[in-house]
Structure formats: structure tokens, C-alpha cells
Amino acid sequence: MTAVDDRPDTAADGPAPEIGKARKRKEDAHLITGRTTWTDNMVLPGMVHIAILRSPMAHARITAVDVSAALERPGVLAAYTGRDFAEIQGNIPCAWPVTPDMVNPGHPSLAVDQVNHVGEAVAVVVARDKTAAQDALEAIDVDYEQLPVVLDMERALAPDADLVHGHTESNRSFTWIFESGGAGTGEPIQEVLDQAEVTLSRRFLQQRLIPAFMEPRSTVVQPDGEGFVMWSATQVPHILRTMLALTLNVPEHKVRVIAPDVGGGFGGKLQVTPEEVITALVARKLGKPAKYTESRSESLMSAHHGRDQIQDITITARRDGTVTGLDVHLYADMGAYLRLVSPGVPVLGAFMFNSIYKFAAYRFVCEGVFTTKTPTDAYRGAGRPEATFAIERIMDELAVELGIDRMELRRKNWIKHEEFPFTTVCGLTYDSGNYEAATDRALELFGWDDLVAEQAERRSRKDPVQLGLGISTFTEMCGLAPSRVLGSLSYAAGGWENATIRMLATGKVEVVTGTSPHGQGHETAWSQIVADQLGVPFEDVEVIHGDTQSSPRGLDSYGSRSLVVGGIAVVNAAQKVVAKARRLAAHLLEASEDDLDFANGSFTVKGAPGNSKSMAELAFAVFSAHDLPEGMEPSLDADATFDPENFSFPHGTHLCAIEVDTETGFSTIRRYVCVDDIGEVINPLIVEGQVHGGLAQGIAQALYEEAVYDDEGNLTTGSFVDYLLPSAADLPNFVTDRTVSRSTTNPLGVKGVGEAGTIASTPAVVNAVVDALRPWGITDVQMPCTPERVWRAITQGAEKSERDPGGTVAWGGASTSSSDGSSASEGDQL
Amino acid sequence: MTRVNVTVDGTAYTDEVEPRLLLVHYLREQLGKVGTVVGCDTSNCGACTVLMDGLSVKSCSVLAVQADGTSVTTVEGLSGPDGALHPVQQAFHDKHALQCGFCTPGMMLAACDLLRDNPDPSEDEVREGIEGNLCRCTGYQNIVAAVQAAGQAMRAGTDGSAAPAVQASA
Question: Which pairing describes strands A141-146 and A76-81: parallel, antiparallel, or unpaired?
């Protein structure tokens, strides 16, 4: 698509609407000139610097910590152990107790008696500069008494398993269950399973990933009376403020949190971190401003990870291809502790495994498991990529099993356009969608038929470079979230969002938002929304965010919620401003409010076009307050809090063609087409960027990224040398387009786009890899589909296919061999 | 401590530095040039890229003492003296080649060196040329477009005034 809109700025009857324009971003000016305010740039008078000693052991008792030698080092002001903070540090909060009996073992910020993952904070040095603090870490003496590591989720649940936390009964945190018969949203799953004509089961592995935002986390704390001011590289300044107040027992009104420029998050900065708590404790103990900035290797070890599930999926169908039941059993690795929403992440996926398909019955069972690894929590998509991967992968497997074309199987089972609104087997009501339109457009852009012909030709001549074609017809739920739904899922907070609009005397406008952007472009997009609503120039709108003092109410940015919740709050606030302005205009124009038209920022008396008042004039009239309607307060400002009635449901069709060199196992994306339906678009330039970035992260899960632990629980991918973020040379040029099915549950008709690319792309790519390898009898390749794994799949598959034409699951690498044993043979009930 | 004389963004500095001090820390902590950032500790990400005598270097992989006698250009010195954006800055803005903006300074300076070496790169040449700079937000597509657009603008000489800012000036 063309990224830049070349429509003229003005039309005959006034300016063109701002919504829909590819406005270049307001945010860019300071970012491209280096006038940035990253937290680590912050320098305060008298500021001290913190370095953290981290555990080299995955699981050990701390028998002694001696910091005395560190205190002798030049420039060192203080050093602390967990014992020093034990009574005041509280626990890192978990806001999502998914079941009443969920086990939360507690999460000290600085380890006191025991370490439970490599990279856990053990001691702290404070010095006059960062180098002195880091140098002194080596002088700290820690005695560890090693404990057995707990790495494999299934073994961790065995009755005789070693325990991560000695004071718990098992390594199970929770078991969360949904069943459509019991919930009244569908038929009982067991009946459908028992009566199935075709049953197919697969095990898929969601590898552990690391969000790997580009800006390492950084925190500065300035003590202030009985409270403090914190600057932090966070996505969630508002949540952080409330949680810090509760955790540290400081009155909430004495805590101010500021998120200045924040360099990416992707869920990774949706957290209350041990490092934030430690920095606050140090600053308050010393009565001096303190800064902590992590190194990249610290970030990869100690900032929360994402994904890491074992997915056992059973799908049932009639022989004609009609799907009937879906039975999902997950093991979700929590890591060593529960962080802010760790347990909620896999549970969010519960509502998305059925995806766009009409199942009669559904069951979802998720077991949260503790291991001696870094805690997991939100990472772009958070529960929904896992679900989308599983359903889109098994739909391909079912198609092969039944001998039905993959796309035909999907068409046969998806919700038809005329069936919307549609209530799914797990009880969500999808308001709008058009899977047919998005798919048809994607197939056309992709050149599907030509690529199918090329694939057949390459197969027939046994070309060493084979072509695979992959499909992902996905949906997701965005706009976290209706507060009543969050309440029913036992989440501690709500899902509303707040906005305030202030009309300044000169007609300029300030928009205060509770969303907290860190790359998404809210300043630009919110300006466009307000420009249309108030009829003021785009340039006249200033968006204020990211400081709990200037933007006091909000629930921040995650879960593709900012536009569909926060943007609607902006609309509602603007409409209140207009209503107030209308009353004033009627007074000044000596007309009835009903006789006024509002267009292009002016109220005009119907039939008297010369008789008008602009928003700027009204703003000044309110400022001077000389002549107001009786009883009207001198303000046009308005505040709105919006709680959505439903999620929104973007969808789309993603197609991937991949060339697999069967001699080296190397995969190269040849063509990637996606047609996303995200409802109405505020700014196509920003939307394109969100889609591109999302695709990159989803493709990276399919082909490149994995957090790997060795047998002793060491993270062996603890730097960017080993954790493979794709570079420009690793990714293709994406072909993107959109269809538009307006959301019917919000006035802008928008759905959210932040996570779509990530959610949709992973199965499209893996389906393509597997498709290329079908002639070898291969039915799965574990992610990431590295050259080694693909080569092993081909080698083992080729050997095995002579004995077992039913196929094989090739999971390369020793680290996962223990999970083997549930490959695909259940489909033989045909 | 070792004395270094270095020109950064047109200003001459003389400082005593520890021999182990990295150029990026010298820029950020001693000169206050915080537009240049640190993204990793293994020279993989390229966020700290600056130009040293016109050639791109990862300033986390150069000692401050190695910069002695050189002229360094950071993102803060990329614009013209009148504030006019460099063609690379303009193109990054025009093509939406940044989201969070953390990789952007390094990415733009790597692009400057790439375009100095190859004023008219193909898409593949841009992708190879910026391989040493990681971006987590954009998926690179708009960055590639921006680099090519900047090359076109620089070839057309539409903004000759800003171009000398990236040349060696010491």
C-alpha cells in the first residue's frame, strides 16, 4: 500500500477529516534529533548509582552474604543484602490470581534466603558513579548451597518432583478450566469427543521468548518527603504508582511516577520490577536520588520472559470436514515467581483457541507451573499468539488428515460474514468481521495459484530448494478490557481509560490521556481524533501523557487497548467539550442550542451562515468569562472515563511462501502477504508501522528466537550474540493491505492493531515450513525452525517415512527430547 | 588518566579520561551527549553508532582514547547549524522509519555511512548495509525505504546545506 496519503488538505466544504490521514508523527522531531528523555539520560544533583549482584545459580540457598569488602571500595556509599530489605521490600505484586486457590509463593525484590533463577538480584552496591558500583560487585562474597534445578514442566508436576519453593506443596500454581457444557456456551466436550468421527491430537511447543525492547530498563528515584518521584522505562506508570504504594506501604498520593521517553515495551515493560523497588528503597534509605540502569545481559536474564507453553491439542471433526470439538490442555511455565499478570497471560488465550471457527464444544485446561527460570509474563499478544498458533497449525494437520484443501477446510468452518454478530463456543460475541473478503484479497495479492503450481513443479523435479505455502486466518481480542469481564476473571483492576480535554484561552487544546505510549504514536493519533471532534487544526492539539501528576487517571498501554479504550475516552471527552461550547455559543449568538449547526470548529445559526462562533472564540469567551449563560462555570474542559462493553475483534488472512533449502535446512521467506481487518483506521502510516513490527516479531518466533536454558538452569542466550533478534537482512518486504469491517461497539469503529501482526504471522510461517516438508512425511518442526531443526526433520523424517508413512514430529535438539512422545498418530480413527 | 582532544558535533573538547572509558560513556556521561544511547553490551545492536571522521563506529566498541584527534558526529550534530534536518533525518520522518526511536540515532548514522559508500543502494544492499543495527519496532521495511529515499534526496542535492555535517571536519 502507499504509506503516505496525498489527499489535499482542504476540500470545498472545509478541511478533510483528520481521521484516515497518513499524518507524519509529531513524536519524531525530538527522536530524530537526539533531544530525547530516556530515563538513563536523567541526571539529578547528588544522584547515586546502583549496581546489582545477580545470582549465578538457578536454585540455591543463600547461606551467607558479606558486603563488607565492597564497602571498602573507592566511591562506594552503601551496600545492601536481602536481609537489609527483608522487612520493607514487600513482594512483587501479582494482580491476577486466576483461581481462588492459586499458589503465589511470594516474590522478594532482593533475594533473602534463596535464589530461584539465574539472574535474580542478591545484593546491591551504591556508589558515586556507575563504574565504581559495578567494580565493587566483585568484592561481595556470597555462599550458595546448591538445590536441584526444576526445568521441565511435566517432571515438575510429578508427585516426587523437587520443589522450586520448599514451602509450597507442589510446583503447581493453578489449574484453570473452562468447559463449554458447564459454562452453557456449547455442548459438553466429553460427549463430542466420545462421538467424534475423526479425532486428531497434536503437541505443539511454544518456546520461551524474550521481549527484548531496545531500551534497557532504567529507573531513577528522587525521595520527596514521605514519598518519592520515580522516572522509569515503563509501559504502565499508573499501575506502577498504585502497586508501588501498596508494595512499599507509601501513601499513593505521595508517589509520582513518570514514564519519559520509553524505548519499546511489547509487554516487557508491563511490570512492577524488582529493580524499581530496589531503586526506591535505596533512594529512600540514603535520602538521595538514585539511578539504576540495566545492561543488556541483565535485561535478558531478569526482565520477564514470554510464551513457554506445552500445548496438547485435540480437534474432532466429521468426515466431511465440519469441526465439532476442541480440547486444549496447556502447561504454562510461570518461571520462578508470579509477576504482575503472569498467570493471566495463558488464561487470556482461553478465549481464542476456537478462533474464527464454529465449534460445538470446547474445553481449555491450563496448568501454571513453577520452574527455576526467569518469570514469564506479557509479551506482544499475551496468550493470543499461543492460541492462534495452535488452532492454525492443527487446522492444517486436520486438512491433511481428511484430504481436504487447507483453505476449504477453513472456509467450511469459519463464521460467515452474514452470521455476525456471532457468539462463540467460549461465550465471546464477535461484533463484526468478513473473513471471506480478507481471504479473497490476500489470495489475490499473494498469487496463490501460481505459487501452488510452482510448488508442484519443484516437488516433481525434486528441486533441492522446496517451496512451502502457509496460511493463517486469525482473529484476536483487543481492547483490554470490559471491567466486568476482568472482574469475572479475577483480575484486580478494571479496564477503563480516561481522557481530559482542556481548552486554552487562545483556542489551543490540551489532551490528557491515561494511555502511556512508547512508540505507538498516540500524540499524533489522538491529535487527529481531537482535531476532527473539535474542528481545530491538528497542529493546535498537544497530547499529555506518562506522568501521574499531569495525567492522573489511566490504566496505560498494553493489550491493543490504547485506541479502542483510550481513544474512545478522548472522543467522549471531546463531545462533552462540544456540548458545553454549544450552550455558550447559543447564549452568545442569542439562539436556541437546537438551532445551531456545529461543523469545522464553528457553531452557526441555521439559516444564518454569517452568524457563528468558532471554538477559539468560545475558548476565549470562557477565559474572560465576561458573558456566560446563567449558572455556567467558566470552563469548557471535560473529562471522560470509558469502560468498553466488549472486546474488539480484528482479524485477517496472512499468507507466507517460504523456500526451504533441503540440503542445508535454511528457510527464506519468499513472499509474505497480509490483509488485516482492524476496522476503521485513524492513521494508515502508523497502522502500517504497527503491522510491520508485529510481523517481524511473529516471524522471529517462527524462525529465529528462543530463550534456551542448559541442564543446570543457566540461560545460554543471555546476550544479543546468542538471542537472535532478526536484522534487516533476515526479514522480507511485506505486502500489506486492509479490509474494513467497522467495529460496532465503539463510535470510531476501530479495533486495535498493536499485536495483530505478531499473533497472525507465526503459524503462517511454520505452516509454510511444514508444507514444504510434507513430502518427507513431516508434520511439525519445533520453533524456531532453525536450519539445524529443519535439516534434522528432513533427515529423520526421510528415514522414518519409509517405516511410518503416518509421519513424524521432528523436534531437533537435546533440550526438548524429554517432551517427545506424543506425536501424531491419533488421527488414524478415519 | 589520559588526555584526549576530540571534536564532537563541531565543538572541541580536551579531557582527562580513564584509559578503559568507552567512547559512548565519554559522550553520554562527560559531554552530556545523551542523544547517543547504549542498547547492548556485545556490540550487536548498533544503537550507539556514531561517525568518527565520517565513518560509522559503534561507540561502545571504541575507547575514548582511540577517538583522540578525531571528529565525532552524533545524532545531535546531524542537523545543519540552522536546524535544517539532514536528508536522512527527513527521510526517517517522512517514511515513518521509527516508532520508539531508541535505535534511530544509530540507525541514521549507519545509514549516513552506507550512503557515503553507496549513494544509490538497492533494497538488498540497504538490508545488508544496516545489518549491524537492530530495531525491534519497525520490521525494518520503512527504514529501508527511508534510507533509499535519503539517498535519492542526497543525490538530487536537494539539501546540500546539511550534508557537510556528516563529513570529517577536523
Answer: unpaired
